[in-house]
Design brief:
heterodimer; A: 473 residues; alpha+beta; Multidrug efflux transporter AcrB transmembrane fold; Alpha-Beta Plaits; Gyrase A, domain 2; 3 domains; five-stranded antiparallel sheet; four-stranded antiparallel sheet; 56% helix; 14% strand; B: 308 residues; 2 domains; 9 helices; 4 strands; 9% strand
Chain lengths: 473, 308
Amino acid sequence: MAQKYYILIGVLILAVLAGVFVYPNYFNKGVDFLNSKLSWTLPHFPEKPFVLGLDLQGGVSLVYQADLSQIADKSSAMSGLRDVIERRVNMFGVSEPVVEIQGQDRLLVELPGVTNVQQAIQMIGETPYLEFDEERTATDTQQILDVMKQVQAAQTAKQDITKIPNWQMALENPYFKPTDLTGKYLTKATVIFDPTTYKPQIQLQFNDAGAAIFADITGRNINKPLAIYLDGASIIDTNGDGKIDGQDNYAPIVDGKITGGKAVITGDMSDQTANSIASRLNSGALPVKIGSPISQETVGPTLGSVSLQKSLMAAIYGLLAVVIFMVVFYRFPGLLASIALAIYVAIVLAIFKLIPVTLTLAGIGGFILSIGMAVDANILMFARMKEEIKSGKGLSQAIDEGFRRAWPSIRDSNFNSLIVCAILFFVATSFIKGFAFTLALGIFVSLFSAIFITRIFLMVFIGKWAEKARWLL
Amino acid sequence: MQVNFTKYSTFYYIFSGILIIAAIVSLSMFGLKFGIEFMGGSNMEVDFQKATPSNEAIQGALKDFNLGEITVQPTGSTGAILQFKGVDEATHQQILSALNKLTPVQEKSFQYIGPSIGQELRNKTELAIFLALLAITVYIAFAFRKVSRPVSSWKYSVTSLVALFHNVLIPIGVFSILGKFYNVEITIPIIAALLTILGFSVHDTIVVFDRIRENILRRGMGQFEDTVNWSLTQTLGRSISTVLTVEFVLVSLYFLGGETLKYFALALIIGITSGAYSSIFIASPLLVTWYKFNLEKELKSNKKTIKG
C-alpha cells in the first residue's frame, strides 16, 4: 500500500482518539451497552474534565505584595510564604486552589468557586504573625514615653506631629522590642495538659535555628519578662475578661536559659481557645508580612458559566459559517478541508485537556481566532492548486506543486504570528499569556493539520475519477 | 486578465490618508478611555433584581463612602457597572450592603486594581508593542533578503511597517470615538487584539510580498510595476477568502460571545479588514511608488551628468 494510505489511517485513528478523549460520553455509553449485552468488560475512556479558569467558573483572584525589606534570603522566604498560604487555603476547603509566586515579591492566590470573598481574604490576610519581644532598657522606655507625651500634646493642640523629632517612636511599644525569633522558626504548636491541674497549655516547638535563638534570648533575659505577640496583640487573654485586646500582655518571666527549643505558654484559657491558637499557629505562622491584596478580582458563578456558554455558541456558529463558505467556494477540496478543520478542533481540544490548559475567556478567544487562521493555510494551498490545474498540470502533480509553492507563504506568515505570540507570552500579564498560548498552540496544530491532514486527504481522495469530474474542483 | 491596481494608487493614498487623519484628530480630541487594569480603581458589576435605580439614587446611597467620582453605566435592563476609586474588601462589602438596602442587588463581578499594578501594566504593554514592531521589522528584512533588486529588501520592511501603523491606528481611532461617546473602555483583551492585528496584518502583507518575490525571481526584474500588479491579481482571491473566513468567526463572536469578548472581536474585525486592505492597496502600491520615485531621481541625475 502506498505510503499515503498509511498516513491517512494514522490520521484517522488520531482523529477518533482525540474526539473520544474530548467527549467520551457517547463512547462510554456504547461500551456500557456492549458490556451489558455481551458480558464483556471493556474499559471506559477516562473522563477528564476541562480545567476552567476563574472567569469561566467563578471565584476569586487575589494578588498580595510581600514586604521583603527585612529579609535576606528572599526566595526561600517567598516559597515559605507560598507554602503557608497554600496550607491555609486548603483548610478553607477550596478545590484546586492556585497559590503562585509572581515575580520577586508577589503572591497570586486563586480560589475557584469561592463565594464568600470576605472570609477568604480574612483567612489569608490575617495569617498569624508570631513574635517574641524582650524588655527594653530603662532609657529606651523613657525616651519612647517622652515622645509619646509630646505627640499627644501636639495632637490636642492640633499641631503637626511630624515636626517632633523621632515622632514615629510614639507608635512603638515602649516596654518591649522585637527580637529575631518569629513564626518562621516554629515547627509545631501542640495543646498539652498540666499534669496536676489538667489545665490546657500551648507547647511551642522551634527548629534548630529557632532553638538557638531562643536559647540566646532566654539566656540574656533571665528573671525578665518575655512578651509573646500574635498579630500584634498578646497571644492569650491575661486579665481574665475573655477578650484579647490592648489590656492584655502575656509576658512570662524567664526562669532560666532554655536550650531545647521548647516553650510552654500557660495561663487561664479554655480548651477551645488553646486549640484555636494552636491551630492558627500550626497552619502557618507567616514568615513574611503581607498586607491586604493589591489587586482583587471576583467573578460570580453565574457570570462565569454564562460567558462560557456564549463563547462556545459563538465558536460553533463561526465554525459552521466557515465550513459552509469553504464548501461553496472550493467545492470538493473545501469539503475535505472542512473535515480536516473538524479534526483540527478535536486535536486542539484534546491537547487542552491533556496538558491541561486552564481555559479562560482569553484562551477561548485565542482558540476561536486560530480556527479562522487555520483555514488560511488550506486556502493558500487550494488557490495554488487551482492555478496549477489551470496551467495544465495533471491533478496529482498540481496537488504537489500547490503545496510546495504555498508552503513558504504559510511558513513565513504563521511564523510571524508565532513571534508576536512569544512576545505577548513573555512580556504581558496572565490574561494575555493565556491568549498567546492558545493562539500559538492553535497555529502549531494548524500547521500540522495543513501538512498532514488536508494534504493527505487531497492526495488520497482525488484520484483518477476526479479528472473526469473537474467541476467538483 | 490582470487588474491594474497601482494605476489608482493616488486614490488609495488619499482614502487612507483621510482615515488616518480622522483617527489622529479623534485621538487628540477625545483621548483614549483606559479600563481600570491600567488606571487602578474598582470595577463592580451588579444586577439589580427588579429595576435599575436612578443614577442619583445610587450616588446618594454611596455618599458616605467618599468614593469621589462614581461612574454608573447601565447594562441591559437590570444591570449596571459601577466604577470608583480603589477600596479594600471590607469597604467593598459595606458598599454592597448599602446598595442592597436601596434595592435588592446581586454582585456579578468585582475587580480592584491597586495603582502600582496599573502602572506596571501600562509599562509592560508599551514594551510588548515595541518589541513586536521590532521583531516584525527584522523578520521581514530577513525573509526578503534575497530580493534586493529592483527594490532593496529593507524597503519591504518599511512599507509593511507603514501598512502596519495604518492597521493599528484606525482601530485605535475607532475606539477613541467609542470611548468618548459610548464609554467603551480599552481593556487588556483589546490590547491583546491590537497585538494580534500587528501579527496578522503582517501575515497578510507577507503573503502578497511573497508572491511578488516569487514573480521577480521567475520573471526577472524588469517591469516592476507590472509584476506587482500581476502578483496582486493572483493573490486577490486568496486574500478575500482568508479575510472572510476569519471575519465569519469574529462576527459570530461579536454577536454571540459574552460581553468581555465583544469589543475584542470588534477590534479584530476592524484591524483584520484594514490589514487585508492595506496589504493590497497600501503596501504594494507604496513599493511601486517608491521604485518610480527612485527611478526618476536617477534619471534626473543622469540627465544632469549628460548635460554637464
